[in-house]
TrEMBL record:
Keywords: Isoprene biosynthesis, Magnesium, Manganese, Metal-binding, NADP, Oxidoreductase
Family (UniProt): Belongs to the DXR family.
UniProt cofactor(s): Mg(2+); Mn(2+)
Protein's name according to its UniProt entry: 1-deoxy-D-xylulose 5-phosphate reductoisomerase
Length: 402
């Protein structure tokens, strides 16, 4: 009898395996997602993997997880990946356009979009149209085209499950509160490596300093965004669309310990917070297996190691990017798209020592002033805005060098 029960349990486990597409599998979020998959092999199965240009790591991942399809966006590395996987049944595709193709892959249950930047927009749209639930780690998708994405998700009855720790915190706080009105949400920010610093100090900082985040281990782009508070600004815009809020219902509070990941305040004044040690694997795991929680061996929080929590007002005068993000959200239309595209250009320039830390905000603000505003943009408008904003930002960076 016991043996029969074990067989039935095994059948149940096999039937409940969730097939996961990971777009951006070689980045920080993607590699941590694969750690989650490794920890729960009876719960998750990898269906698709994609990488921008890290062919070596993509090959290693493919050999370990045996997906049906892999994509290497850098077409010059197609043959390297193809040859390395020739002894397997794994299909190899190349080029950015292939991301949209695999995002709609039929034998997948959920798509984790961990791509960097606005390149995540088209694949996310393709996945939604194919009826795939989205585990969203690519905040730029909602920043660039939040209204379009949320409308499509509603039309195709697709869930957008946030992976960012702050948005996951809000999402978790709202479970069971569907009938209750949100008064305000508070996104917490660590303050980054330059908390409390002045403009005079920031004028001379280098990328090596900006890349030293005190609490989180992330990719270079998002780490620089965290140092400039642009990451928090992008999260503010994303939160508006994820939770159907007005701009004045979103606020930012600096919490250097990064234990309270965000808070919700309801109309009766009650507040809920989601807490935990800084570990991106927790929100990744929650999104991939929603609505069920999975037991894990992550380090547990010890109250006595954190006897004090502190909270500070965000300094939007010194860190202009956060103020610019709020401005773009209030303006609406294609303005957040301009903000995001210009930011991607200036962050890349800063990482290549072509522009100063404070100059990033100056270029972004000038782009917001000069690129044509469109109140009700369609997809093509977003794409054109993104292109023109990048061109202008690049020109401004070049002028600043000269």
């Amino acid at each position: 009898m016991l043996e029969k029960e074990k067989q039935l349990n095994n059948i149940t486990i096999q039937q409940s395996v969730r097939k996961v597409t990971i777009l951006g599998s070689t980045g920080s979020i993607g590699t941590q997602a694969l750690e989650v998959v490794s920890d729960h092999p009876t719960v998750f199965k990898v269906a698709v993997l994609s990488a921008l240009k890290n062919a070596t790591l993509l090959i290693q991942q493919a050999l370990k997880f045996n997906p049906a399809v892999v994509v290497i966006c850098d077409e010059s590395k197609y043959h390297e990946v193809k040859n390395a996987l020739s002894a397997t049944d794994i299909k190899v595709l190349a080029g950015e356009a292939a991301l949209s193709e695999v995002a709609a892959y039929s034998d997948s249950d959920i798509v984790l979009t961990a791509l960097m930047g606005s390149v995540g927009l088209k694949p996310t749209i393709a996945a939604i149209k194919a009826g795939k639930n989205i585990a969203l780690a690519n905040k730029e998708t909602l920043v660039v085209a939040g209204e379009l994405i949320t409308q499509l998700a509603a039309e195709h009855r697709v869930k957008i499950l946030p992976v960012d720790s702050e948005h996951s915190a809000i999402f978790q706080c709202l479970v069971g509160e569907e009938q209750n009105e949100i008064e305000k949400i508070y996104l917490t920010a660590s303050g980054g490596p330059f908390l409390g610093k002045t403009k005079d100090f920031l004028y001379t900082v280098k990328k090596e300093q900006a890349l030293k985040h005190p609490n989180w281990v992330m990719g270079a782009k998002i780490t620089i965004d965290s140092a400039s508070l642009m990451n928090k600004g992008l999260e503010v815009i994303e939160a508006k669309w994820l939770f159907n809020l007005e701009p004045d219902q979103v606020d930012v509070i600096v919490h250097p310990q990064s234990i309270i990941h965000s808070l919700v305040q309801f109309t009766d004044g009650s507040m809920k917070a989601q807490m935990g040690l800084p570990d991106m694997k927790l929100p990744i795991q929650y999104a991939l297996n929603y609505p069920d929680r999975l037991k894990n061996n992550f380090k547990r929080f010890n109250f006595f190691e954190y006897p004090n929590f502190s909270f500070l007002k965000a300094d939007t005068e010194t860190f202009r990017n956060l103020a610019l993000a709020f401005d773009s959200l209030r303006k609406g239309g294609n303005m957040p798209c301009i903000l995001n595209a210009a930011n991607e250009v200036v962050v890349e320039a800063f990482l290549n020592d072509k522009i100063g830390f404070l100059q990033m905000s100056e270029v972004i603000e000038q782009c917001m002033e000069e690129i044509a505003f469109i109140e009700k943009p369609q997809l093509n408008d977003y794409l054109e805005t993104d292109k023109h904003s990048r061109i202008l930002a690049g020109e401004l960076v070049t002028k600043s060098i000269v």
